Structures are given as structure tokens and as C-alpha cells.
Amino acid sequence: LSKKTDNSIYSQRFSYTGISLLSIGALIAIAIIYFNLVQDLYVLSGSILVFGVIHFVAAGCIKSGKPNVAVVNIVRDFHNMPFTMRQLAFVQFFSWFALFAMWIFTTSAVTSHLFNTIDPHSKEYSEGGALVGNLFSVYNGIAAIAAIFLPAISNAIGRKATHLIALTCGGLGLISFYFVPNPDWLWLSMTGVGIAWASILSMPYAILSGSLPPSKMGYYMGIFNFFIVIPQIIAAACLGPILRGVFNGESIFILVLGGSCMILAGAADLADKNRIIVDL
Questions:
Q1: Count of Cβ atoms closer than 10 Å to residue 155 Cβ
Q2: Is residue 4's pLDDT more than 70?
Q3: What pTM, to 2 d.p., does this model score?
Q4: How buried is residue 36: exposed, middle or buried, by Cβ count under 10 Å (0-12/13-18/19+)?
Q5: Residue 127 in contact with residue 184, Cβ under 8 Å?
Q6: How far apart are CA 56 and CA 59, in angstroms?
Q7: CA atoms within 13 A of residue 190's CA, in its CB half-sphere
Q8: Which of 78, 93, 176, 272 is the most exposed place for a label (fewest CB within 10 A)?
Q9: How far apart are CA 168 and CA 212, in angstroms?
């Protein structure tokens, strides 16, 4: 009787979730057409619609007396996702959204804000672009060095606290692009980004691995990678309109937005059911 009750609950939950996902996917598709948004958003819309259909299929399998088929187990595991993974979904989203903002807009932000040019054929623009290329090399180098120290730091203060500190360094680094008095200070800014980059590539997976059942490790790690793809799609689709409609074409504010998102990701890393910080 208990199993039948559980199956009935899951069937209803899957059906309601399916309706919600199909509605969201359809609304996104309509918005793309109506507002002439970037076509990349169709990938997001289509993915949501497909996942909604999968929920309906799972609900139908339960109703037809097949509660143990693969599709039902997959959807059930998704709904039973560990709290730590749900928490890290927000952390990853805002972290990678910030990174994509940086990768797309740093050159235009630096050349316009610090070199006072938007002309790609000018000498100043070339100097700014060359500086950005060097800065990107530096933050990768800093990340390689920081990665050496992250295990010791996480052992001392916990993985979540370590990730919080690293993301805060990265967020402040991006925000500082707006405030630095001259381009030479950007080396310090990129040091913070490099520390964040080292942590983003390792800490979320270390945090997650300790909360997953070994038998479901592969499945949940696969799902976890979607939390990188989704912010990429949204950043590619939304940052352009935000730049034009909100920031009046000033790319530097996209970096400030990215830095704020990275700090927000660190704050999301603190959330827990019972305590502010959990020492893993």
C-alpha cells in the first residue's frame, strides 16, 4: 500500500512538473519570436519542452503499472536530487554566467573604459586588446598556482568556505575593472579572477562528490554539467539586450554585473538547511 501511495504521489508530481515545464518552454519560444531574441534561446526552450514531455512519459508509466522502468527512475532521481546539488546549481549558474560575461565583454569594456576608444582600427584599441589577451593568460597562470593551495585551505576551513572566499575574490576582481585608475591595476584584478577560476574548476565537484550516493554518481555528475551549459545559453542570449537596453552600450557595466553574480554565487554557497556554513 505504501509503494502504491508513493507511486501515486510521484505520478501527480511528475504530471504537475510536466505541465509547468511545457508552459515555461512554450512561453520562452513565444518570447523569442515576439521580441526577436537570439536564436540560441531555442536550445533552452526545446530542452525544457523535452524535459516536460519526459515527465509526462514517466507519469504515464507509473499509471500503467510500470513504476520501475528506466525513465521513471531517471525522473525520480532528479526529483530526489540531494540538497547540496540543488544548492550548487545556483552557485554554478551565477559563477559561469559571470565567466561568460567576462569572456565575451572584457575586450570592449577595457578598450572603451580605460583606453577611451570603441574603434577597432585604432592604436588604442589594439593596445587594449593585447592587454586583455595578456590578462587572460595571467589569470590562467594564477589559477594553476592557486590550485596547489586550495586543498590545504579547504582542509583548514572547509570546502564551501574556501569556494566562498575564492568567488568573492573573483567577483571583486571583476567589479574593480570599473574603479581602477589605469590599466596597470588590472593585473591585480585578474589575480582575483584567477583564484576564482581555480576554485570553480574543482571545489563544486569536490563538494558534490561527498553528498552523492555512489550508485548514482555518474547520473548526478551528468546532470550537474547542465548547470554550466544553461548559463552559457542565457548569457549569450541576454547580455546583448542588457548591454543595449540597461547599460546604454557601456560594456564595463557587464563586468560589474558579472562580478556581482560571482559574489552572489559565493553567497548561495553558504545556504544550508540547518546551518549557514557546513564544514564538509
A1: 10
A2: no
A3: 0.87
A4: exposed
A5: no
A6: 5
A7: 21
A8: 272
A9: 26
